[in-house]
Amino acid sequence: MNKKIQKLSDKFKALSNPIRVSILLCLLNGQSNVTKIQECLNIPQSTVSKHLGILKNAGVIEGERSGLEVIYSIVDDNVKG
Amino acid sequence: MNKKIQKLSDKFKALSNPIRVSILLCLLNGQSNVTKIQECLNIPQSTVSKHLGILKNAGVIEGERSGLEVIYSIVDDNVKG
DNA sequence: TTTATATATTATAATATTACAATATTATGC
DNA sequence: GCATAATATTGTAATATTATAATATATAAA
Q1: Buried b / exposed e across B29-68, counting CB within 10 Å, b at 16+?
Q2: pLDDT for A61-71, tens place per residue?
Q3: Å: B46 CA to C14 C1'
Q4: Which of A22, A30, A63, B53 is buried deepest, with most CB atoms within 10 A?
C-alpha cells in the first residue's frame, strides 16, 4: 500500500468524527485549553482528552503545557486555511 | 449534534480509507468504469464495488450506467479541485 | 508533603468498519 | 427463453473505533 496515500487517508480519518470537527471549530477562533473545550462541547473530560490526543497524533493540532493547563492550537496549514 | 458538523465529518469519513483515496486518484484523470478501477487497484471486484458505493453515498462520485458498464466520475467540487 | 486542579491514560463494552467469497442483479446478444 | 459480461448486494468473521467511568499523572500552592 502506497505510503503517501495511507498518510492522506489517515489525515482524513482524523477529521472524520463530529466531536473532532467541533474541537477544530473551537480552535479556529484561537487556542484553548481542555477545560474550555470541554465546556464548549459539554461532554466528559476523558472523551475530550481522547479526541485531542487523536488530533494531536495526526499532526492537526499541538498542545503546550502552561502550568496546570495544556493549551491546544491548530498547526495543520490546510485546516487553519 | 449539529447537522452541518455531522455532514462535514461524514464527508471526511468517506475519504478516510486508502482504497477510496486511490479510487479518487484514478478518477481525477477522468471517468472510469468498475473493471478498469479494479484492474488499477488489483483487489476483488466486490471490494471495489463496496467502496464505490460508499463514495457515491457520500456524494463524492456518481455512477452512470452505459450498457453493461457503470461509468464513475467525481462530482464533489472540493475533491475535483 | 498534603491538597486541589487540570489533563491523560486505561479498561471495557457497544458499535462500526473492513475484506472478500458467494450470490444476486442488470443488460446484451443469440 | 439461455448464456455471458459487468456490476451490486449479502453474509460473516476479523478488526477498529467509540464513549465514558475509573484511575493515574502533572503542576501549583499552602
Answers
A1: eeebebeebbeebeeeeeebeebbebbbebebbebeeeee
A2: 999 999 999 99
A3: 28
A4: A22
Bases of strand C lying below 7 A from some protein CB: 5-11, 17-23, 26-28
**Which residues in chain B touch residue A2, judged by CB atoms under 8 angstroms apart?**
18, 22
- CATH architecture label of B3-76: Orthogonal Bundle (1.10)
Strand partners, B65: B70
Fold of A3-80: Arc Repressor Mutant, subunit A (1.10.10)
**What angle is formed at CA B45 by the lines to CA B39 and CA B46, rounded to 5 degrees?**
155
Residues across chain B? 81
According to DSSP, residue A70 is labeled: E
pLDDT tens per residue, range A22-58? 999 999 999 999 999 999 999 999 999 999 999 999 9
